[in-house]
Amino acid sequence: MFGNAPGITMFAMMLPFLAALLAPSLVKKLGSKAAWILALAPLFIFLHLLGFTDDIGAGEVITGGYLWVPSFGVSFSWFLDGLSLTFGLLITGIGTLIILYAGGYLSGHDQLGRFLAFMFLFMGAMLGVVMSDSFFTFFIYWELTSITSFLLIGFDHKRRASRRSAIQALVVTGGGGLALMAGLIILWLTTGANHFSFLLSENQGFVAQSPYYLAILLLVLGGAFTKSAQFPFHFWLPNAMEAPTPVSAYLHSATMVKAGIYLLMRLNPVLGGTVEWLTILPIFGGITLIVGTLLAVRQTDLKLMLAYTTVSSLGLLVMLIGYGTEKAIGAAVLYLVAHSLFKGALFMVAGIIDHEAGTRDVTKLGGLRKAMPITFGAALVAAISMAGLPPLFGFLAKEDIYYALWGMDTWSLALTLTAIVGNALMFVIGFVVALKPFLGPKVETPKHAHDGPALLWLGPVVLGAVAVLGGIFYSFSHYFISIPMSSAVWGDLVDVTISIIPHFGSALILSIITVALGILAYMNVDRLRGAIDRFYNWFFGGWGPDKGFDQFVSGIVRASFWITRKLQGGKLEVYMTCTFATIAAALIIPMWFFDELPKMPDFTGEVNFYEAAVMAIVIIGLMAVIYAKDRLTAIVSLGIQGFAVALLYMLFGAPDLSFTQFMVETLAVVILALVMTRLKLSAADHRPWGEFFIDMGVALACGIGFMLFLMRVTQDPFDPSLSEFFAAYSKIIAHGANIVNVIIVDYRGTDTWGELAVVMVAGLAILALVRIKSPGKVKVADNVPDDDVLGVTERTGASK
Question: Tag placement on the chain: N or C end, fewer CB within 10 Å?
Answer without folding.
Answer: C
